[in-house]
Amino acid sequence: MQQAYHVPVLLKEVIDGLKIIPSGIYVDCTFGGGGHSKKILEQLNADGKLVVFDQDEDAQKNVPDDKRIIFVPYNFRHLQRFLRFHKISKVNGILADLGVSSHQFNEAERGFSTRFNAALDMRMNQNEKITAADIVKIYSEEKLHQIFEQYGEVTNSKTLAKTIVELRKTQSLNTINEFKNAVYPIVKGNPEKYFAQVFQALRIEVNDELNVLKEMLLQTVNVLEEGGRIAVITFHSLEDRIVKNFFKNGNFEEEQSRDVFGNTTKRELKIITKKPILASEEELKRNPRSRSAKLRIAEKI
Ligand SMILES: C[S@@+](CC[C@H](N)C(=O)[O-])C[C@H]1O[C@@H](n2cnc3c(N)ncnc32)[C@H](O)[C@@H]1O
Question: At 137, which helix (H) or strand (E)?
Fold first, then answer.
């Protein structure tokens, strides 16, 4: 049996949370296999519209033949620019289901998974230049240390960075196996977990995931109609913190911004989910990938 491109997580929760207006305009920033988009389309009438982004060319083949859908094969960091290009100034709802799709993870040659041997790639957009192997090859020891520590919370990130810089003088670290075998002697704890953390750090860096998320969030408040909703699904604490702080404070800090007089600036979003929505027991059993998913929803004031 052919593997599904991707099984959407928190599907009902997202659709309920967006409170879809049948004639509204919606954006799915992360189209992937189109699971969420399909349900959004089902709620829209003939006047509704759905703009979908995916920077991975592979996702395009999942776009249904439907006049109401516009596919944008670019990074969602350009959200406002492409909406403007399509003559859309305001939308009624935005969804972002972050991270990689099961398809990307299950295709060995995309280089995302520690289960396979292939080039150490990890680019969601294969037209981008920098791969994970390039990062391992060219980044300074300090920079490597920083990304393993911050993006992967790797316990011995300093030793790992030092080891990579030493090893790369004499050996090739271009493939997943070359990389894993070379650093294996310094692995701490469970190797599977260790490499999952190391790969997460590299993936975040390759795709600049935290910055693109911030850029997109900042634009959402400009394009959302009053009462329009934004729903974001995250898969690790770094992303969740960014979304949480943005919904609460309008910035990426723990506190609300203040103007020159020290007054807090006007809130643009009302939080709908005080606590993030997690997958139900039933979904966890059916789709283990939903384990770390957290859904937060806010509404434009
Ligand atoms: C978790 S999957 C989304 C799955 C989708 N909700 C579904 O139901 O099939 C994330 C998708 O978003 C894409 N993506 C991730 N970050 C992106 C970005 N910054 N810009 C555009 N697409 C992105 C990935 O290529 C991937 O296909």
Answer: helix 132-138
**Sequence-separated (6 or more) residues with CB below 8 Å from residue 140:** 165
pLDDT category at 239 given cuts 50, 70, 90 is very high
Nearest CA to ligand 1 atom 4: 32
Of all atoms in ligand 1, which is nearest to the CA of residue 212?
A: 19
Is residue 180 within 8 Å of 109, Cβ to Cβ? no
Q: Phi, psi (5° rounding) for residue 62?
A: -90, -5
Q: How does residue 94 score in pLDDT terms, banded at 50, 70 and 90?
A: very high
Mutate to test the pocket of ligand 1, among 12, 26, 31 (most ligand atoms within 8 A of CB): 31
Q: What mean pLDDT comes out for the span 148-165?
A: 98
Q: Report the C-alpha gap between 28 and 82 in whole angstroms.
A: 13
Q: What is the pLDDT of residues 240-281, one digit of tens each?
A: 999 999 999 999 998 888 888 888 888 999 999 999 999 999
Which residues touch 279 (CB under 8 Å, ≥6 apart)? 9, 10, 287, 290, 291, 293
Cβ(36) – ligand 1 distance below 6 Å = yes
Residue with CA nearest ligand 1 atom 27: 32
Closest atom of ligand 1 relative to the 32 alpha carbon: 27
Q: Which two three-digit tokens encode residue 262?
A: 């020290």
